[in-house]
Write a structure and sequence with these properties.
By secondary structure, the protein is of the alpha+beta class. Helices cover about 20% and strands about 25% of the residues.
Length: about 300
């Protein structure tokens, strides 16, 4: 789901290649073309994205709570239409691993029956588990009865560029046209994806790693200070993290058996209860879906951190 049915390829965004910080230098009488203005935008977007990436890292800045909405049957007496069960994502803001802002300004929904029917049976069977050690956060398990067997699926949010509007322009390339047009605006958009997670276990939970490395919350002050210093020194990313094809390597939360944009931000894990035992086909058993919002990376703002510190 996205803000537009027309999306550019992820690699069409100049920031995907993490370009060097070159900005145009202007002089009176200089001839300019479209590439010069694109380079100007890329410089400013790239500097802001670099700062956000290093300051906050990829994750959720605000909102984006995920919830499950059960199906509602039609009621002719009250003129209530039928509503299928769905996974609902509330409005919010995230930062991806390139530092790009991804914003949902209104709720977005993933229709669960449609997703289930579009997913092949073998993927659902291999993503069904009877044990959930390390696959869920401790908070979501408090006071909740876990299903005997459930399909684990992860929800990802990725940045997209949505071309909008047309304006007259010179034809580019080997064309001869007097009525050529070109996109006049590009809107920052988003795309939601839900992926069944196969091959998970207690040692490979497929979840985001904690920011800054290992958990040191219970360590003494000197240990925490040393860990913070080392995290800053080690925090600068490699100058070229992409492979030979320009693809960024996946993070711990990205599946390796499914093609997915590795700049996507993990926002939630859901458990869809199914019947049967290990190795059996995954058939829905009608129970409510369990949503775990707390295994994602959260990026609290300065005001929240100040409040936590007692200011």
């Amino acid at each position: 789901m996205s803000t537009s049915s027309v999306l550019r390829s992820p690699k069409a965004d100049p920031l995907y290649a993490q370009p060097p910080a070159d900005r145009p230098a202007y002089a009176t009488g200089m001839l300019l073309d479209a590439q010069d203005f694109l380079d100007e935008q890329t410089y400013h977007r790239g500097r802001l994205a670099r700062a956000l990436m290093l300051l906050a890292g990829g994750g959720t800045l605000a909102g984006l709570r995920v919830s499950y909405q059960a199906a509602v049957e039609a009621d002719e007496e009250t003129d209530t239409p039928a509503v299928p069960e769905e996974i609902r994502v509330e409005p919010g803001l995230a930062v991806d691993r390139l530092g790009r802002l991804i914003e949902l300004q209104r709720p977005a929904c993933l229709r669960l029956p449609r997703w289930w029917d579009a997913t092949d049976e073998d993927s659902l069977r291999l993503a069904a588990y009877t044990g959930f050690t390390n696959l869920l956060s401790a908070r979501v398990q408090q006071g909740v009865t876990l299903p005997a067997r459930a399909v684990a699926a992860d929800i990802y949010l990725r940045f997209t560029a949505c071309p909008r509007g047309l304006t007259p322009a010179f034809a580019s390339g080997p064309f001869d046209a007097l009525n050529a047009v070109s996109t006049s605006r590009v809107r920052d958009g988003y795309e939601l994806t839900m992926v069944p997670r196969r091959g998970l276990d207690a040692g490979t939970p497929g979840l985001p790693l904690p920011a800054g490395g290992a958990d040191i919350g219970s360590a003494d002050a000197d240990t925490r200070r040393a860990a913070l210093q080392d995290a800053v020194f080690d925090g600068y990313p490699a100058t070229d993290e992409s492979d030979g094809s320009g693809n960024l390597p996946g993070l711990s939360e990205h599946p390796t058996d499914v093609a997915i944009d590795t700049t996507s931000v993990f926002i939630a894990r859901v458990l869809i209860p199914v019947s049967g035992g290990d190795g059996d086909p995954a058939e829905r058993d009608g129970d409510d879906v369990l949503v775990d919002n707390y295994t994602r990376r959260l990026l609290p703002g300065v005001a929240l951190l100040s409040r936590l510190a007692g200011y």
